[in-house]
Give the backbone structure.
Amino acid sequence: MPPIAVSGTSSEPYWRYTLAGVKTVFAHPQVQRLIPICIFTHGGFLAVQSLWIGPWLRTVEGQPATEAATTLLALGITVMLSHLAMSWLGLRLNTWRLSIDRVLIVGCLLMLLFTAAAITNLWDNPLLAWSLVFVTTSVSGLIYAKTTLAFPVEMGGRANTGINFVVFAGAFGMQWGLGLITDLAISIGQSEAQALKTAFIGWAFMQAVALIWLVRNPEPQPPRR
């Protein structure tokens, strides 16, 4: 990884120093292998939780507005508690000699399987189905730990800022993309419920692509010092 001058000691203009940091972050193989997970898995979850789970509950599951609102509240609490639990577990993975990479891969695989189960109504209980999806989503938050560990300490903040940008760009892109698929499906004759299912199937497919990309690209050794 090319050396980056410490801010305030470089004779380079600040914009050039900043661009050098951006290039260093996004040229790193660890970041490149995590980008699809950031966009389609974690970003897709943010898109669904923030925009599309409500229409799914009302249109596909047939819940009235009050019931859908209650389900959304319960799912929000589930997300909060699961992320709090993951922050506690994340600090103990090394103590338990668990590989962060393996935990991330298993978590993303479970999220994919639970997403497929929710789409196909395997559990016949929307709250249970999407709670399982959202709980396993908390594991994808390990992308931040993996990014930080891939860089020297002085680059950690810039690396996490870069990966956070990808996550939120992915979330907004997935919000738009799911809407586009829904509109296209309706335009070819599908009902709104069928169109939403088509869009969510597309999301599950992209999760699978991101997981395959992660598994097929070996993890580089972190140069922490």
Notes: The helical segments are 14-27, 29-60, 65-90, 100-119, 126-137, 142-149, 156-187, 192-216. The first helix runs from residue 14 to 27. The chain has a mean pLDDT of 90.
